[in-house]
């Protein structure tokens, strides 16, 4: 038997109010989460995340759901007045999706991916905010857990990141040595050499794939991070990741390049 839906508390946050309203209209339309998702090109699991107030959806979801749910413009209106101005940390919902992932594909054009940062490197990036640093270190446990099986990480970074000094030379040397030591059958690290042409200049993003095949992505913008699950958006991000990765060095050559950078610049 299907599990009963989780009880919602619409008053707990603007995202919870938006989510409970979406559930109300969906149930009135007698559609399951998967059925609604199929009609608007989103995974049913994404609809569930939005309804529970666990993720901040993009406006296009509200726009697409408006017609099949016959909300007469209510969902886009609520998105504009509840979701868009809602205060939240850029990363607030992403660790939940990260923890559910079987595969993570990450492109970070400026700094080392948070899952592979040393404490000292993270401390420099986060301006000594101990709580934020500890939260980042806690996120990294997803790669070392025993149950469930940890996700496989495919991490692509431009060579520029190896030269982008964060903190002291010692911090950089420790960070790059940690990157080398982290490489394994589970963690695949590839470097795009300087001068290679690729479509990765628009910013950082991560694509998470669950065991059931559902996908969701997180992108960084100039203002905040955004979690998205639209089929078309995911297709474009996957194409971008594959195009960037096609220009990267193989794993072995990438690790050799990192070793040379440690020796020639940070030692």
Automatic annotation (TrEMBL):
<feature type="domain" description="HTH cro/C1-type">
    <location>
        <begin position="22"/>
        <end position="56"/>
    </location>
</feature>
<dbReference type="InterPro" id="IPR010982">
    <property type="entry name" value="Lambda_DNA-bd_dom_sf"/>
</dbReference>
<dbReference type="Pfam" id="PF19054">
    <property type="entry name" value="DUF5753"/>
</dbReference>
<protein>
    <submittedName>
        <fullName>XRE family transcriptional regulator</fullName>
    </submittedName>
</protein>
<dbReference type="Pfam" id="PF13560">
    <property type="entry name" value="HTH_31"/>
</dbReference>
<dbReference type="GO" id="GO:0003677">
    <property type="term" value="F:DNA binding"/>
</dbReference>
<dbReference type="InterPro" id="IPR043917">
    <property type="entry name" value="DUF5753"/>
</dbReference>
<dbReference type="InterPro" id="IPR001387">
    <property type="entry name" value="Cro/C1-type_HTH"/>
</dbReference>
